Give the backbone structure.
Amino acid sequence: MALKSKKRIQSHWGGFFFVLPSIIAMSIFVYGMIGWTVKFSLSNRTSAWSVDNSFAGLANFTGLLDDPEFTHAFSNLVKFTLVFMIGTLLSGLIMALLLEKGIKGEGLFRSIYLYPMAISFIAMGTSWRWLLDSAEGEKATGINLIFHKAGLSALENSWYTSEKGSMYAMALPAIWQMSGYVMALFLAGFRGIPDDLREAARVDGASEFKIYRHILFPQLSPTFLTVLIILGHISMKVFDLIYGIAGKGYVTKVLAIYMWQVIFDFQNYAKGAAIAVIILVMIAIVVIPYLIYVNKTEEANK
Amino acid sequence: MSSDLASRATQSKDISRNKKKLDGKGQFWLVFRYIALSLLFVIAALPIYIMVINSVKGITGVDQATAFIPPTSLDFGAWGPTWDILREPMFRTLWFVLQSSIISAIIGSINGFVFSKWRFKGSTVIFTTFLFGMFIPYQAIMIPLTQFNRWAGIGGTIYVLVFAHVIYGIPICTLIFRNYYQGIPNELIEAARVDGASMVTIYRSIILPLSIPGFVVVLIWQFTSAWNDFLFAIFLTGGSPKLSVATTALNFITGSGNQVYYGNNMTASLIVSIPTLLVYMFLGRYFLRGLLSGSLKG
């Protein structure tokens, strides 16, 4: 008995030893560097020439509240996130609903819906920039041209260059990119539900609508949660999607783009770090409870 | 298990038993589903369609008003000059992406094995702290990372990107392999333990030979995300032309000043997308598996 437990302890330490390099790497490059960034955000290092690392308290953060560019970027991000999350959730769900019972050609539809995930947004930005071109009427191109030709001139608009609608237009390519992913998650969810449940309800005379509403959707609530977390955190750090289409343009500026500008163009490390910390905190508030929840359900399933 | 998740998502449902005669309502819904699916198909395919048809209209042949219409004859005039600019960055990208993917896969496999089959006290907590690294915005580590690179002497070389993708790929690669190994029955390990095999031997002679699909998933995942990455590339290389990779070179071509050269831009975008598109076309199943692994739930 004693021998066995000794052996077990040894084997346990062995496992720890093999992941130790990764533990060290994660401690330094994730947690240590986050700490370092936080320290920057609390310092006076506000220009490339200053090496003043003295403590500035929350000055950089309170400064951001008074910075109209920051509040502009923040409200842009909120608008974008709302439209992007709702739009992607709905279109992904619709794709899954259309496919989940099985249909001829399913594989083809699925692969076309999902390919946007495999391409860089710097590349797809070229097409989207053209599709969302702001020219209207006789000069219209892209989607406006389709509207124009279809006699729907009322729908023509200046997309992401417009003052008010820029972020809603910018959500379109984002929805386009992520819908297939959401579809795949829901499809996996639907197909994890045993067919008997459906059959039983059908025998009991429940309508198709009721079956979805009362039997299938409740089973999918973990999938809904996962989808919301994934979309939410992607939205908050959105960068190359917007950069690929609109560059550093003012009307579509979000936090990640503004942070990049502050670091590279203005060389203000302390302020850039403060913006990064804000993005991080927004993500952490959502993700950490989720990770704990996943951890718990996994332990419970064991 | 993520592999189950993926096979559930990719397994076309057996529709043979639905062949029984559809009534009027059933037929209506089938037609409705096909129309809706085709409409979504057109929308999803539109951006890549535009890219492809306008890349074969030559350098000056792209006209805004006819950009939706396929060319009457193929003109690959824009491909030569675009490829000349992209060749070097593309090969540089391929070189660093291969390195970072292979290293990531090896690390992920070892970690995944430990967290799944060789657990120690506190391993679940440590695993969860790893996972958080998957969600962080890389902006939050970018400033210290550039300083570290300079200090470590790899600043200004392509190894900054190898290093960044290996380190920040640890969480996802560990997760994919861990989920994959969860599917291997513990009895297999127990039996080998009883026979006196050490965990290292078990890993080498039992687990590794079973790991090939896991390696394919992780290699594809790391390849695609490193190839498509723009954030690390632009931050860590500081826009230096000596270190330009596929996405930064493309951004240089299509960037704000050059937006009128649609023929060139579309061609360049397509060329940069071809490697990942090929991987997707031929190994899409494995790509999806990596994608679904990232969703944690299994």
Observations:
- The CA atoms of residues 31 and 37 of chain B lie 10 Å apart.
- The mean pLDDT of chain B is 86.
- The domain at 79-293 of chain B is CATH 1.10.3720.10 (MetI-like fold).
